[in-house]
Amino acid sequence: MKQLDVCLTPDLLHLHKLENSIVVVADIFRATSCMVTGLAYGIQSITPVATVEECKVLQDKGYIAAAERNAQKVEGFELDNSPFSYMDERLIGAKVAMTTTNGTLSIAKARPSAVKIMVGAFLNLGALVNQLRSEQYDVLVLCAGWKGRPNLEDTLFAGALAEALQDEFMLMEDSVLMAQRLYQQGKDNLLSFVANSSHVRRLQRLGIQKDIAFSLQTDLYDVVPVLRGGALVSID
């Protein structure tokens, strides 16, 4: 039987074996929510990079560039880290380069060892569940967290995925059970459940409440981003 595991922060990734695993990266507030939204709205590809410098190199090559640090847009780049920025019709067919504080760094850390890397959000939860059911590999949910620390929203997403896949996958470690039980407590009102979380407070100070509510909506899009040749594209 396939196994499902959860890594609560990228700083713990070295404790997990990825050789037979699809890694699902989750950065709910807000990188992976942006990635799902962008591909759903017709962006051709999103190339995630770990550093601002790498993003600038791609920008110089003609990519539309998105750079975020500490929840704010880096000066000199076209896009920030809000899902609403990715709904622009001018981005249809575009190639986007993206770097964020936590999400793209998580992808970079998982990339050398994972069988595949997919991107998860509440926005594409159902589509992701269906895709993972059809795959032959184990699954590791990598929560992007915040600067090496676990966070509530990514752990809740991991729990939602575990809840949906528990009949097809063995839930192996306590991190999975923790995430699942947390989700069971909060699933009836996710927005209220995360209201006092650290990243919600961080975003609210910046006036980004609408991104929080948007990113906690379930099954808005039937899109599963997968990393191919260094770029995220939608699975056909």
- The overall pLDDT, averaged over residues, is 95
Question: What is the CATH H-level superfamily?
Answer: ComB-like
Overall number of strands: 11
Radius of gyration based on Cα positions: 16 Å
Read across the widest sheet, the strand sequence of neighbours is 7-2-8-1-9
- Cα(first) to Cα(last) distance is 26 Å
Low-confidence stretches: none
Quaternary form = single chain
Helix count? 9
At the fold tier of CATH, the topology name is putative 2-phosphosulfolactate phosphatase
H/E element sequence? EEHEHEEEHEHEHEHHHHEE
Q: What top-tier CATH class fits best?
A: Alpha Beta
Instruction: Report the biggest beta sheet as strand number plus sense, adding barrel if it closes.
Output: 5 strands, parallel
Q: Which architecture name does CATH use?
A: Alpha-Beta Complex
- Strand proportion, as a percent range, falls in 15-25%
Estimate percent helicity. 25-40%
For the record, the count of structural domains works out to 1
Structural class: alpha/beta
Task: Name the overall outline.
Answer: globular
InterPro entries: ComB-like, ComB-like_sf
Keywords: Hydrolase, Magnesium
Catalytic activity: (2R)-O-phospho-3-sulfolactate + H2O = (2R)-3-sulfolactate + phosphate
Family: Belongs to the ComB family.
